[in-house]
Design goal:
The chain is an alpha+beta fold. It contains one helix and four strands.
């Protein structure tokens, strides 16, 4: 299992790599909303302030959880560039009217 926060961090890294890889491409795509669906196990820790952690369950692995111990969640993420309300471009150059 992996923490949900790590999954989102890895997704952010992959999207950043796609932006960098497409810098010199003529064709570009605007990155729209991202839907992430996962099976998660919820764990509450009584130590350290009662922290709740969400673990993404790998159903193909050895650490399979019962259906009663997992929940399916769906997150809708809308990527934005820092300091703007613009959607990132995952390839190509921004035109003069887009800067």
């Amino acid at each position: 299992m992996i923490e949900l926060g790590s999954v989102i961090k890895d997704l952010r890294s992959e999207l950043q790599a796609a932006i960098e890889a497409g810098k010199d491409e003529n064709l570009r795509f605007e990155l729209g909303p991202i839907e992430l669906e996962a099976s998660v196990a919820v764990e509450r820790s009584d130590s350290g302030g009662g922290k709740v952690r969400f673990w993404v369950v790998d159903l193909g692995g050895e650490h399979k959880k019962d259906a009663s111990n997992t929940q399916r969640i769906k997150l809708s993420l809308t990527p934005r560039l820092v300091g703007t309300h613009q959607a990132p471009q995952i390839s190509g150059h921004a035109g003069a009217d887009e800067e």
